[in-house]
Amino acid sequence: MKASSLLHPLPSPLSLSSSSTKPPLISTLFHKFHSFKPQSFNPPISSKTLHKPKTPLFLKPPIYSTQSSHLQTFITWAKHLITSLEPTCTDFDSSILHRELKWFLDDAVEDPSMITQPSGTVQCKVVNLRENLDTMYQLWEDRMVRRRPFQYIVGCEHWRDLVLSVEDGVLIPRPETGEIVDVVESLVNGVDGGNGLGKDGIWADLGTGSGALAIGIARVLGGEGKVVGVDVSDVAVSVAKYNVERYGLQDIIDIRQGSWFDPIIEFEGQLTGLVSNPPYIPSKDMDGLQAEVGKHEPWLALDGGVEGLDYLSYLCTKTSTMLKPGGFFAFETNGEEQCKILANYLENESGGSIGNVKIVSDFAGVPRFVTGHRRETR
Ligand SMILES: C[S@@+](CC[C@H](N)C(=O)[O-])C[C@H]1O[C@@H](n2cnc3c(N)ncnc32)[C@H](O)[C@@H]1O
């Protein structure tokens, strides 16, 4: 499996909502901070997550086989599909798709030297595959015709230094979200005038999805602290658990199913850190998302309500009670206006419990994150 951010074919959902839309007045949103209450979700104790996570293609055993000539026929067909569809889709980039095809083949074929056959050789060798050749045809057609995200085709995403399993029903983690881990790392290591958070605290990742932030933060804590990852989706919970186990972090990360703070209420006033990348796309922008995102990624992970602020605002109202004095939070947002609204609320409406509120830009220069601390004293 080759890591290359160049191969990331999806624009961030963060950049997909209409930037020309006039933001709502901050004051008209304030009342929603207090009135919005997400549905509580607590699975019955007896209902363990039933979803069985899928194994990424590159980790599957090579139990299928085909003739090398049949593999070459597949490759010719797959390349032809790219060329024939390109003129009909303005947002297709054939160079990226050719690299995706190479990646797909590298993952699917046990011995990648079998992918390139010197011309003129007698092609009668047996090739071992990690996926049935018929299924490979189906998968590539899904990618090209139905615009299924490439990460769902190969079952994983390279994110920071991790290879995370993903599948339909789980958001593909985006590169910019990783910047939250960088901020946490600076804080616990005392860089940037770190405030002595230390590595031994309890952290929460609300809406953990594939477990990306929970795993990234657990590795920063280096085994000294604990991380609780929460998600309402049973697919996300099972995939996050799978990723946690793949990285051997099951003693440090506890993945729990439920709605936002419900599964972690026992840590009220004790959290050293709280991070979240909740759904924040305004509902009206959902239909305009790029096909890979809007047609295939879970709306549960994307749709943030009318203004996109339903969940962010709810999280803000509870943050100071969940954090211990001096505790840190970081929220990802849709961009500038959401950042301003949240920062304004946290600074002015939190009864003085929150301080050091900052808007942090992502690596594209877009104001993306809101961070801050619970004050030591109120
Ligand atoms: C934007 S995704 C973020 C996933 C992951 N943290 C990441 O950055 O890749 C938002 C996540 O919030 C979860 N979610 C939606 N509603 C929720 C709720 N009421 N309680 C907990 N999680 C929820 C979704 O299932 C989804 O996994």
Describe the protein in words.
It is a single chain. With 378 residues, the chain is of the alpha/beta class. Helix content is 33%, strand content 17%. A hairpin with a 2-residue loop joins strand 3 and strand 4 (162-165). The longest helix has 18 residues, at 68-85. The chain is elongated. Bound molecules: S-adenosylmethionine. S-adenosylmethionine binds next to helix 7 and strand 6.
Pick out the low-confidence regions. Answer: 1-34
Kindly report how far apart the N and C termini lie: 51 Å
Shape: elongated
CATH hierarchy class name of the largest domain: Alpha Beta
How would you classify the helix and strand content by structural class?
Answer: alpha/beta
- What is the number of helices? 11
CATH superfamily of the largest domain: Vaccinia Virus protein VP39
The assigned CATH architecture of the largest domain is 3-Layer(aba) Sandwich
What's the pLDDT, averaged over the residues?
87
The radius of gyration computed from the alpha-carbon positions, rounded to a whole number of angstroms, is 22 Å
Bound compounds, each kind once, are:
S-adenosylmethionine
Work out the strand percent. Answer: 15-25%
Number of domains: 2
CATH topology of the largest domain: Rossmann fold
Q: What topology, given as strand order, has the largest sheet?
A: 7-6-5-8-9-11-10
Helix content: 25-40%
DSSP summary, beta strand count: 11
